[in-house]
Write a structure and sequence with these properties.
Strand content: 5-15%
Mean pLDDT: 90
Low-confidence stretches: 627-633
Shape: elongated
Strand order of the largest sheet: 15-14-13-12-9-11-10-16
Distance between the termini: 65 Å
Number of strands: 16
Radius of gyration: 33 Å
Structural class: alpha+beta
Largest sheet: 8 strands, antiparallel
Helix content: 25-40%
Amino acid sequence: MTGDSFNWHEFLGRWQEEWVPRAGEDEDDPEAVVSPGRPGAGEAVIVAAEERLGRRLPPSYREFLAVSDGWHVDETAGVYQLGGVADIDWFQDPYGMTSLYEENLGDCPREEDVLLAGMWQRALRLETDSDMSYALLDPGDSDPDGEWALYVYKGWSGELPERYRSFRAYMEARYRGFHADRVERTDFVNATTRAQDARVEEARLLALRGRYEKALSLLEEALSFGRPGCAVLLSQLRHLLAPRNTRDYGNLAADPRYLSEILPVEAMTPARGEWRLGGDDHWLGMMAARGVERKAAEAVLSGMRDGAYRYAPPGPWGQAVADARESARWGETDAAWRMLRDALPLWEAPGPSLIAPIGLLADPVLGALITPERGREILATPRAGETGPAPGPVPDLDPPGLAWLTEPAPNRRPFDGYRCVWVEGTDPARLPALIGEDGAELSAPADPREVSWRAPKPHEREGVELWEDRAVVAVGRTDGAWTFAFDGHSPHHLNKLFLSPAPAASSSGRAVVVWRGPSGSSPGDQPAAFHLSVAEQGEELYAFTVRGTEIQRSGAIPEALDPARLFRPLDTELDGELRMLEALHTELGLSLPRFALTRGRLHTFTTRSWTRAPREGEGYAYLTFVRHRPSAP
């Protein structure tokens, strides 16, 4: 029903042939079974109306009147009847809407807002029966074809008028609405419903073959007709295209075939504490109303909330998911994604209503990996036994080395202060035993930023001295032979009480410690400090600390890492830091996974103190800032 030509006889004739009451309406009521159209108005009658109005009517409305002089639109709430040529007249803004809309234009209004403000005085009113609603054609809002925009204003809604680019566009939308309003009637079957249902099935197959863009278009059209089954298919496509947005999967979670994929996805919002409508009980009640057992919903929600939930589909795809999670939980997110990408063709749909591995999004470790770009790659990959061309792989997300620590990123400032311990040839699970506080254990994978921000301060922990600086570190491994423990959210400054954890970490091999202390926020504050220490078999080999132009050093520092060569007097702090980070990558093979540390989920633990106890004659200060809300006057 789109294109340059349009046959009103065919369109309105089909609508009239398909006309039945909505589900629940009394078919014995003569008002319910109504012929929507009327005989067309003759050319002379239309011309006479145009002379009365002083304007030639827009093309699509004029052509409509020649076929049917009015129409029973029958919206659920809104406009019910469009009048004929004898009924239409200028609206003339009887309720003073113009001044109301002009007051809100501001100093630099948009063109569409100016048009809307003026529409009330210019518009031609079409409806003769409505629920406090108006169908208004605006001659001041026209296109090159002479079509006038049509606005539907529902006075009871408190919303802005809905704009359609022409009368024809409005009638096409109303025809789709007519179908959507009758989808619950089991006997509402006709050529249009059969054609739309065939398109839903075509879209399902296209989606499985990787042609998601064509599938998206077909499903969006079918949804406008209210066809059953298309909404859940469309939700899956849209969810993977925008993984951070939530989607409604209706009653799909109640089907045992789909519960393991869909119910955890439905639980993502309440598990994050973002459910505002009555808390867990409301969500659990909503799931129960959809047919999900309360005990099953409670178990999934609990697992999502404490991080214990694991996406575990069956078959070869499930094995690839498990292998990918094992890599991702240690920070190797690009490798994990490649495992998933290679296994995508092996994914099997448990039933016709599932067209993508949507359950990935709910996994606390793997869900973070699914960016919009990777979501598109999932959708573009043929799967579930279907064939088609494979998409080009999206680029890896982790840059090599350490230089990224100095770079800003979307929604994140560069790390002003960070510290890290690398240990060579050691399993990351051993790090708590090497440098952790007494009883330290790895946490479940979590957002390192949230864990650090929520960690109790020394004065909040029994048995911890105020001078202690215990760090909450994220744990993982790099592409080389190094394991790391990283703290990128510490406000602590490098001071004279610093005690490098490198010797303790190096009991079975080499260990490297880097600490970039934050700079002061005010003029005259101490400059940022950069520390490097390297140890092996429990002994420190060399170390240095750079603070401004001052360099403290010990041991035989390799020339490639010589701070005097890399931190030059006339350079900025950033220049020297960047040079040193690049040298550490080149000479020692050190790197850190940016994605895992800034957007992913990693194991964490709390280290022993990075500062020693003050000796006799040494002092220290511990400041606590408490923000009080001002009292009410």
